[in-house]
Amino acid sequence: MLQVSESQVRLGLSAPDKTEAIRIAGRAMVDNGLIDPGYIDSMLGREAVSGTYLGSGIAIPHGLPEARDLVRWTGVVVVQFPQGVDWGGGEPARLVVGIAAKSDEHIAVLQRLTGVLGDPAEAARLGNTSDPRAIMAVLNGEAPAAPASEPVAAPIDGDSIAVTAPSPHGLHARPATALVEVAKRFRAEIAVRHGGTTANAKSLISLLRLGASGGQPLTVTAAGEDAAAALQAIRAAFEAGLDEPVSTAAPAEEPAPRAVPADLDYDGRVIAGISASPGVSTGPVWKFQREELTVAETAPDPAAQHRRLDQALAAAAADLRNLHEEFWKKAGAAKAAIFKAHQELLDDPEMVAEAHALIGQGKSAGWAWRAVYEERAGTLAQLADPLLAGRAADLSDVGRRVLRLLAVVTETMAALPEHPVILLAEDLEPSDTAKLDPAKVLGLCTAGGGATSHTAIIARSLDIPAVVAAGPSVLDLENGRTAILDGDGGVLVADPSERDRGRAAEARIKVGERREAERLDRYKPAITTDGRRVEVAANISDPAEAVQAVEAGGEGVGLMRTEFLFLQRDLPPDEEEQFAAYQTMVRAMNGLPIILRTLDIGGDKNVPYLRMPAEGNPFLGVRGIRLCFEREDLFRTQLRAMLRASVEGPVRIMYPMIAAPAELERAKAITEAVRQELNVPPVELGIMIEVPSAVMMADRLAREVSFFSIGTNDLTQYVLAMDRLHPVLAPQADGLHPAVLRMVERTVDAARRAGIWVGACGGVAGDPAGAVLLSGLGVAELSVAIPAVPSVKARLRAIAMADAERTARDALDCADAGEVRALVRQRFADAGGVS
Known about the structure:
By secondary structure, the chain is α/β, with parallel strands linked by helices. The protein is 42% helix and 17% strand. An 8-stranded mixed sheet has the order 10-19-18-12-15-16-17-11. An 8-stranded parallel β-barrel has the order 21-22-23-24-25-26-27-28, surrounded by 7 helices. Strands 1-4-5-3-2 form a 5-stranded mixed sheet.
């Protein structure tokens, strides 16, 4: 366990300002072998970005994440300034704890500071002591520190503003997270009062516990040097809606369980709930049993328990990061953002501090953690607003994730039977739902939850029929009992009659027949009824998917996302590893073309070992080809691997995020230099059309490449100025907006005049209406997710290109995406479910 030695404590020093104080602490870290000297500048850089004063005379300067390679060993130093150093918050710092973090070992030391923060007298004693062992005893856990006080219980004195909780759902997770992000930019102490309760504005859980529904009055108070600026920024954030749509309407309420709709007409026992995910399934029910975790209440070694909790928190955080990455690949960034919110819950300072305080009182790490998160989850569950109460499941999910790593006895979940079942549960946590195999789970029915819950969102993304808020009676059904889950109607039907089963079977058969017909015809080309062909290729992310793409009927790979070779690892793949991966894919395609996109890191994909600078808006920063130029060594290595693999089959190389002809010229020059070094034949080169400038310069760019590929996801967000990961705006960022379609039309026109072809590889290409409209606008290749290949090809075989072209022209004159979709539904009502 990390310990603070006497050489790491320096007493009785002085400094004219915090800059010099940080330099003194940094030199002490250098002397102790913790950091290279260059890390000191990063510590000063961190201070410029975010103040490190904690309170009670304690500051914790540390470096920026990108300077982590300048850290030699994880550790801390403590420098005492008895006369105090102005840290910019009106209260002098007397204990400066310099942090060098290469791992998470230092967290236990910092957690012990929470007791000092809650005891001003103890902080004053340590800030003036002449005995280094007094400081060592507290930070090493040898002397118990006073437990931290509960920040939400004490209002603060300062200037205040009156604001209103955002409509429709109040301070639930998303707007509360936005408020925390604003509050953390300021050094001032900031509190939010609702009724008789006060919350720490820098703690997500503290804000959620307020239970403030939409339209309710709040008072925000700030104290400190930058209090006025903080209040001004917070007022602006509330006026902007805190990431919620600004509305003057009355707060919307989540639908309550309702009576059974008359048109459902089931004979069996109908349990009504709320539709959470469409679809109809029939099968035996099975009650979902989560593992039972048992922990001892007390433990003899508090220091070891502090360490156990810190290690569990770090491991759970890593698990959430991995889950986010995997689910992002499975269901898209918007759905995966759920697990980013869970990371914020896990990082809540009050919850962690309170758990450590309980450990200091002799409790075990597991008992302390469970007591803290269950108390908070219970409070959230009792809130009147259903959306706020629904976050209790998220907090329980996060809490249990950590508890699994601390439990003394773990009784694992009862295994599901071999045959598919309809799962019944009190409620399902998001990570439970994300891990479900649709092949083994026919549907979900929960007693609690709501249509706006994260679990419902994930169920829809996995195409699992789901009904929520069905009430506790659903749990009275014994395992194996036959039921129909009607996700469309929002009901579970126990003991269905033969007529009920027949109707449900008929609905399933229609879908199944269509999908089977598509599967059988998956190798047929997508030739429209009037003889026009559109190539349908697949998007892939790893070598194994190349085989799947061919088996699904893909006519090539329209996008190989090479960045996935760089994710979830500590170092970038070398040339041989990349060559082996690309070679495997090319051989698997057996002569079909494959487009390898060069590294597209940045935006929503970050790689820590690349030491990319923190950016206020990463989608407008160093990403795509810009990063390739910043790290030309990686770019050249990747190009060598790609060009070597091109000897095995038809490889095309595509550059992402090209915004100007000069960028394309530079990328081509580097590629040609590498090709000449290898002495291999030339390959076709293309670019992604993702930004408006590329569209406007398409006539110039088309002269220099063999093809364009429109990345509709990014093009949509840049054209509409809507972040495609934004929790509120993402649903509005529809690639069928006429503005985006006009960009596609302009791109295709420029390509035609230059004699090159245009493909599309974003989400719109696999959308039923999108496939029709893109084809009608002249896009020659659609690259879609592997499971969508057969259905897209079947859809195109069912229409006439002349009709698609006419509809696309009319769509350009529509007002918005909704009008476009309605137009396509009207024109192609009988063409394979186009909508």
